[in-house]
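Entry 14: structure prediction run for Integral membrane protein. Input pasted below.
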Amino acid sequence: MPGTHTMPAPTPALAPEPALRPVALSGPGVELSAWARLFTDGEALVLRYRGFFGRRSEKRYPLSGPRGISRALLIVPRGEVAQVHPQAGELRLLDPAGRPVARLLPNRWLPSGRVGVPIEEALRLSGALALLDAAEIPVKRADAADLAMPREPGRREAALVLRPGPELPGWYAAVRVTAGCLWLLSMSVVLFSGGSLPGWVLVAAVTAFVAPAARLALRGVTALRNRSAARLGLSPSAEIRPHPGRPDPSATFTAPTRRFLTRAVLRVFHGELSVVDQYGADARRPLTGPAAPEALVRLTGPDGRPVGVRLRHASGLTEPIGAWTDWFAGPGGTDAWQRLRDALPLPCEDLEVNGQALADPALLRGPGAVAPTPRAVDARRAAYFPTSVAKGSSTALMIAGSYFSVQFATTVAQDAPGIARTAALLGLTGLLLQFAPWSWHHLRSRLYFERPISWQNQAP
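Run finished. Output tokens:
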């Protein structure tokens, strides 16, 4: 893959603006929000990303020379593809000979995580156009001749993508895939032999145990690295917690839960606004530079009462922060709103919206807004620790692997009692490592986090 790898300082300086920030993710992805950036530094385009072993790394792409980036080709979807997948498309960064150096997918660098944003709108909203302008990289819209040029092989095409890093570290995926393949191999041998080969029973038990053990290790590593990432930058100048008001009995939304009240937060850093939702996903937005918003907008209804908060960009695009009733309508909300206004280097303006607009739920609690989840079951599912690409199939395979470890231990108990005890112990421990976090998560969610907050001690 083109580019020069470098190891950054333990506590890096703030990335100069304009800088692209990744989509906000929870769990292992929280570290990426604080660390991963794409910016220009002197004579190079710099990508901060997470490496295979989870290490924070940098890659530099020169902006001059025979292999440097000299221009960008904008590929916009057409026809039926544009209608079905408006977010499709990319920026191909080319060298003077027209060879691809890197590929930029703007929708992967939208902090709000909004989906379906057309490619040209995503270029402005993510700050990609401002970044290319700062790097003096001219952008040309691809024509028929450009689209007819041969593409790189599939693996190289994927390697060219400028990405902040996978949500789950590469080492974890490699361990899971390797252990899964070895488990399938050993299980095939055990099944065809009728369980009469103790050595293969032990191999199957060990490889089945690796998956839940690796997931538990990933949880621990994630907690440590997220704490470390939080110390990379400066302390926030302001931290705003939700101050929800009493819910309207006629409203279609549910009351805020304890999860929302204890986890969601707005933080103002030097040159950056951090919007953390109730699941821990941290959306970072610039407050300075050409990609920064122009104003903090307070939406008001026809009766003059505040209803929501948004950021407005110079292009007219807006990004919702949250509904007023979720954040500032309760006791202490007025003071919290004033602290947010004082901390942000943005002018504040009021915008009146009519009653018909207020009937649209997406206005206040649409994509990108920090709001309570209406259904508790959805909140429990969204708050769970991220799984692998295989989703439920991966979890089912782990459970089956641990179960078969116990099952086949009984078939070799007489011939190899030591191996039988080891296989049974690994199987039972594997089941415990899977069900203990799952049970703890659901108990905490049902008994505490997803419970509506009490209004008994709240002022009306």
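Notes: The mean pLDDT is 86. Will compare against the previous run tomorrow.
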